[in-house]
Design goal:
Structural class: mainly alpha
CATH class of the domain at 60-124: Mainly Alpha
Number of strands: 2
CATH architecture of the domain at 60-124: Orthogonal Bundle
Shape: elongated
Oligomer: single chain
Strand content: 5-15%
Order of helices and strands: HHHHHEE
Largest sheet: 2 strands, antiparallel
CATH superfamily of the domain at 60-124: Winged helix-like DNA-binding domain superfamily/Winged helix DNA-binding domain
Mean pLDDT: 82
Radius of gyration: 23 Å
Number of helices: 5
Length: 126
């Protein structure tokens, strides 16, 4: 490799790539000789956060972690009401994802909405 991005391969390089290709992706192979010590836990933690904060594009609703749900409920246990911005800051989420989470909790009957649009607040359902 020349490290400069796309370039034209020689016939020998193409043959070597074809020879080395596999029907089974490397990502699907189980590496039985490795144990949990092979994982870099900081990388796994960052991946989980990134996955949690990534918008799902398949049309399925976002999935809220139990941890996020507990943090929202704990926050509202200590505070009578909250704004979406409060929760966004608490969970370090984008406003759109925060609104999705709050809407889920409203639909589950855990939260109620007070006010509308710019003055909207949320509180625990009595």
């Amino acid at each position: 490799m020349n490290g400069e991005g796309d370039y034209r391969c020689t016939k020998d390089e193409v043959r070597n790539m074809m020879r080395d290709q596999s029907d089974v992706s490397q990502d699907l192979r189980v590496l039985e000789q490795l144990d949990l010590n092979a994982f870099d836990y900081e990388s796994v933690r960052r991946y989980r956060i990134r996955l949690q904060n990534t918008r799902i594009t398949s049309g399925e609703p976002a999935i809220m972690s139990g941890n996020a749900k507990c943090k929202i409920i704990d926050y509202l246990t200590d505070n009578d009401v909250c704004r979406a911005a409060d929760i966004s800051e608490l969970l370090n989420l984008k406003p759109s994802r925060t609104r999705e989470y709050l809407a889920m909790l409203v639909s589950e009957g855990i939260l109620v909405i007070e006010g509308g649009n710019r003055n909207r607040t949320y509180r625990l359902k009595a």
